[in-house]
TrEMBL record:
Family statement: Belongs to the carbon-nitrogen hydrolase superfamily. NIT1/NIT2 family.
Matching Pfam families: CN_hydrolase (PF00795)
Keywords for the protein's UniProt record, in alphabetical order: Hydrolase
Name the UniProt record assigns to this protein: CN hydrolase domain-containing protein
SUPFAM superfamilies to which the protein is assigned, alphabetical: Carbon-nitrogen hydrolase
CDD domains (UniProt xref): nit (cd07572)
Domain CN hydrolase residues, every copy: 1-242
GO MF: hydrolase activity, acting on carbon-nitrogen (but not peptide) bonds, in linear amides
Keyword Hydrolase belongs to the record: yes
PROSITE patterns according to UniProt: CN_HYDROLASE, UPF0012
Organism ancestry: Bacteria, Pseudomonadati, Pseudomonadota, Alphaproteobacteria, Hyphomicrobiales
Originating organism: Devosia geojensis
């Protein structure tokens, strides 16, 4: 997608893309991070984002799921919290429009960048505290959002909890996307022997940001089986073959072979 700052226009785009995907036979649909609104500032976000309960955009998403009889996974939207911050929340709907699962993005980007301003995502968002899996048809889905993809332990935890498919909706910047997008997503698939489905924002947005695009579906052997080439909005479809998950995990049993270990003690300077 290429979400802007007008929620209704973004929901119109989601509805059109969902219809296209369902028309191609998709039974599970994933949209990108910040599907509903990609705000310019915290102030603008506060003027648009509402609470979770009774959220009209989620009610509309539930209707899309019912109309097409699909699992619709809204990659994320900002949900207003009582403390003035927001949750970056992923919401999975069943084919009858019920909420099957929600997940709040755990890892927040707080960094001091040389020569640039400090970036504190935690000043706007409150991080989630639990890993989430959910049944989707014949497979179990593990939920993550964007920056989470840099933290292998989350995906390891999801896989050990039964996830065979990992959802990674994102709004990746262009420079980091060019350098890291494909390799990180393929690595998470290989490490866990899982499918990774990554729906991405792409192009120049109304808020002045530019995102990388290149939505991907990666199989458990780390091969890209579908990709949006470039940053234009579009739909990709692939079949989840669960025997490939079982085969990858049997051939390289990383999850079974993992062991706990103690960290090396820090030695005083000068001790050999």
């Amino acid at each position: 997608m290429r979400s802007g700052i007008e929620p209704e226009a973004n929901m119109d785009a989601l509805e059109a893309l969902a219809e296209e995907a369902a028309g191609q036979g998709a039974r599970y649909l994933l949209s990108p991070e910040v599907t509903v609104v990609f705000a310019e500032s915290r102030e603008q976000l506060a003027s648009i984002a509402g609470p979770y309960e009774g959220n009209p955009h989620l009610e509309r998403a539930a209707g899309i799921a019912r109309r097409h009889g699909v699992h619709l996974h809204v990659g994320s939207l900002a949900v207003a919290l009582p403390d003035g911050r927001f949750a970056n929340r992923s919401v999975l709907f069943s084919p009858d429009g019920r909420v099957e699962a929600t997940y709040d993005k755990i890892h927040l980007f707080d960094a001091t960048l040389a020569g640039l301003r400090d970036y504190r995502e935690s000043a706007t968002y409150r991080g989630g505290e639990r890993a989430v899996t959910a049944p989707v048809g014949d497979f179990t889905l593990g939920l993550a959002i964007c920056y989470d993809m840099r933290f292998p332990r989350l995906f390891n935890t999801l896989a050990k909890s039964g996830a065979q498919v990992m959802a990674v909706p994102a709004a990746f910047t262009v420079p980091t996307g060019e350098a890291h997008w494909h390799v990180l997503l393929r690595a998470r698939a290989i490490e866990t022997g899982s499918y990774v489905i990554a729906a991405a924002q792409g192009g120049h947005h109304a808020n002045g940001r530019a995102t990388y695009g290149h939505s991907l579906i990666v199989n458990p052997w780390g091969r890209i089986v579908a990709e949006v080439e470039g940053d234009a909005p579009g739909v990709i479809v692939a079949e989840v073959e669960l025997e490939k998950v079982a085969d990858a995990r049997a051939r390289i049993p990383v999850l079974a072979n993992e062991r706990d270990f103690a960290p090396d003690p820090v030695l005083p300077v000068g001790v050999i």
